[in-house]
Amino acid sequence: MEPGPAVPAYILRGHEAAIHALHFYASNALLASGDSDGWMVIWSLSSKRPVAVFKAHDGGILQIKHWTTNRLISHGRDHKLRVWQLRQEDFAGLSTKLPNDSNDTTSEAVASASTHPQPWLLHSLSVNALNFCAFSMCHQDPRQPTSEEPAPQLIASPNGLDSGGIDIFQLPSERRVSQIRSDTAGPAGMVMAVCLFHQTTGPDLRLVLISGYEDGRIAIHTHQGNLGDPDGPPGWQKLTSCDRAHTQPILSLAMLPSSSRTHFFTSGADSLISKFCLPSSLADMHAQDLQSEKCINTKHSGQQGLSVRSDGKIFATAGWDGRVRVYSCKTMKELAILKWHKVGCYSTAFAVIDPVVTHEAGGDAGNVLSTTASPASMGDGAILSTYTAAKDLTKPMNALDTIKQQREEKARRTHWLAAGGKDGKISLWDIY
Q: What ranges cover the WD repeats (predicted)?
């Protein structure tokens, strides 16, 4: 008897508006979601219930990332990029009333201020959000040793005046430290997706920015040395571009996790998904156009929210047809079609999978049963569990505490794939 179609392990209901941002953090103990009305919900993965609900922006939320376990960065359609402090002790002062729980006639603005207090706002930057392009971030110096203090970050987002340009900001200074202007030789339209990262080329460390545009073009720029240093090397250099990556606007762009940072994927409003390879020596790219290593025609237009799992084995897309599709990173073969949402999906996110896997005693040696999320990969101050870190481990645990800890550990080790869409619901899938 053939197995039936895959079904979600859980459905998280709470948003009234379309969900455009999802992000696992705190060693997979928490899931942050943001909708098109500006609401952010922090979900506990062990209880599948909200632990914090607040209005983060006056417009829709485009992106959510964590700086550290206790700091979240959100990018809104109100042209603001905000850094929130969300420590374990801060949750007690925040509301857990979901946006769809409101039954009164009070205006949304009044209800938000009175019943949903915001967490401490650490930083606020004015950025562009007209392009529907979410920000990208990376460490300013990846070689900097880890410490208790949050490491300085670089933020890439579209320029406010030049729709094809890109600004680079620095946190915590909140300064714009660099700018990439649009290509005057052949305008490509608005910036639709950006990816900022460091790549090691021999003894050198280069900052690389990949950008996708409205006309389907991809451009790659690189910068060597410190940004904003007047005595340093020249600014950004355009290395190469691909003028025919997609026939319609690029909707998402994601790197394949690896130490070399050589491959990335793109999806667009057309039905194409492409995989590109960056040579190990970026200097070799000046003389040639970027070519896709592999391109597949999915025959399903509008796949966005492309995300790659941290082990680099699979990636997923959110489809306008309500389907979440999972592909192999190596072969780009379609592995699964996850059908549950009746309307379009806009966002996907994977829980972090550590490359060091553990196997259950007596289990199949080739079957990965559980994984451990590396605290180092989750940022400074990472914790094994948001709800167990604050406990006094010297005190004996009763039966209820033991059950709770086991439930948290099981949720943290699950290979979650989250998907959100126009229906305001989040489907949680336990796959591969």
A: 12-53, 417-432
If you write DSSP's letter for every residue of 87-135 in order, what string do you get? -GGGGGGSB---GGG--S---HHHHHHHHS---EEEEEEE---TT-PPP
Q: How far apart are CA 17 and CA 143, in angstroms?
A: 41
- Binning the chain into helix, strand and coil, the percentages to the nearest 5 are 10, 45, 50
Which residues fall within 8 angstroms of residue 238, CB to CB, at 6 or more apart? Answer: 183, 219, 220, 221
Length of the chain in terms of residues written: 432
Q: Which pLDDT score is estimated for 158?
A: 93
Using DSSP, state whether 159 is helix, strand or coil: coil
Q: Which long-range contacts (CB under 8 A, 24 or more apart) does 400-408 make?
A: 404/46, 407/46, 407/47, 408/29, 408/46
d(CA 58, CA 38): 6
Residue 304's closest CA among 350, 265, 251? 251
**Residue 30 tokens, joined:** 């928490």
CB contact at 8 A, 27 and 411: no
Q: Name the residue ranges covered by the structural domains of the chain.
A: 8-126+347-432, 131-297
Q: What are the residues whose beta carbons fall under 8 Å from the beta carbon of 115, sequence distance 6 or more?
A: 95, 97
Task: Look at residues 91, 116, 86, 113 and name the one whose alpha carbon lies nearest to residue 101.
Answer: 116
Structural Rg of the chain based on CA atoms? 21
The token pair at 46 is: 């062990």
Distance between CA atoms of residues 295 and 27, nearest Å: 33
| Contact between residue 30 and residue 43 where contact means Cβ atoms under 8 Å apart | yes
Tokens of 250: 């690029």
272-277 and 263-268 beta bridge pairing: antiparallel
With a cut of 50, which residues of the chain have pLDDT below it?
105, 107, 109-110, 355-391, 393
pLDDT tens by residue, 40-80: 999 999 999 999 999 999 999 999 999 998 999 999 999 99
Tokens of 165: 């340009």
| Nearest residue to 183 via CA among 229, 239, 130 | 239
Q: pTM score > 0.70 for this model?
A: yes
CATH class for the domain made up of 131-297: mainly beta
